[in-house]
Specification:
Chain lengths: 160, 137
């Protein structure tokens, strides 16, 4: 799970105090894409745990595909791309919110991606052990909790 | 005592997720099947008469969205248990689904353990009602 910022509690306080909001379209896109893909990873991991069987290679590839789609989606939502200047935070998105999304969601998704990629090395593909499935499940829970927490902190009529 | 497994219809437009949901319920001994399309969902419902439906409110390019599916299947069998899956950003859908008779709703991203516990809890109550000969309300 992405480690919290050392001053994370203060940052959430700042969001509440300064009425920092997340544009509704950003929430919509986050929930729409993350909703499906993060949920799917969560289910694949839980099936492995319930059956006490490793995640098969095909399902592992599916997880990798979901993580790539999430990474691409988050990148598109959070940045406007400019050939000259490179990527900039999307207009209207407070830098603190941008930082939170990048840190919590992108890091957790990259961790899932790295962990699964390790077992799906093209030269030596292996099923993903149950212990790893439990960790993948924890990452999905962490993403959900982060979204809930940020939503609660920014939950105002104008910004949800 | 009726020991045939509880039939569960999953209506979810992300096929990988629908497949995984059905897979999880099969591990738990339920007769789970799925479709990614709203129109197919109503047909499948009429053919197989599931006792429990899990329906995503937003069904991509389907001609019927999840709320319309709910409305149609509740007309066919008002006693069917329905869990709606939605997003926190779709507050109006939650209110509409409740008005149409959905007893439960869950929010995406789903926690698969919470989802499993809710579905298995309802499946358990369906079995108990079957065993006691009560009609399912």
């Amino acid at each position: 799970m992405a480690n919290p910022f050392s001053n994370e509690k203060d940052l959430y306080e700042k969001i509440r105090r300064e009425n920092i909001t997340v544009p509704p379209l950003v929430w919509d896109a986050m929930y729409h894409y993350l909703g499906d893909y993060v949920s799917a990873i969560s289910f694949i991991a839980l099936i492995s745990i319930e059956k006490n069987e490793p995640i098969g290679i095909e399902d592992g590839k599916r997880i990798l595909d979901y993580t790539r789609k999430i990474i691409e989606t988050v990148r598109r939502i959070l940045h406007t791309q400019d050939i000259e200047t490179g990527e900039e935070p999307a207009p209207g998105l407070h830098p603190l919110i941008h930082e939170f999304f990048t840190h919590h969601i992108a890091n957790d998704i990259h961790c899932i991606n790295f962990r699964v990629s390790f077992f799906l090395d093209p030269l030596d593909e292996q099923a993903i052990p149950v212990e790893e499935a439990a960790k993948l499940l924890d990452y999905t829970v962490s993403i959900r909790k982060f979204l809930d927490k940020l939503r609660e902190a920014t939950n105002k009529e104008q910004g949800h | 005592m009726s020991d045939h497994p509880v039939k569960v219809l999953i209506v979810e437009d992300e096929e990988g997720l629908a497949q995984a949901m059905a897979g999880l319920l099969k591990v738990r001994g339920l007769d789970a099947f799925y479709t990614v399309d709203g129109v197919d969902a109503v047909k499948l419902f009429e053919e197989r008469l599931p006792e429990l439906c899990v329906i995503d409110v937003r069904l991509g390019f389907s001609k019927l969205d999840g709320l319309e599916v709910l409305e149609k299947i509740k007309k066919i069998d008002p006693s069917v248990e329905c869990i709606m899956v939605t997003r926190i950003t779709e507050k109006e859908s939650i209110a509409k689904a409740t008005a149409l008779g959905a007893g439960h709703y869950l929010l995406k991203p789903l926690d698969s353990r919470e989802w499993r516990d809710v579905v298995m809890g309802i499946a358990g109550r369906i079995r108990e009602r079957r065993d006691s000969g009560e009609s399912v309300q």
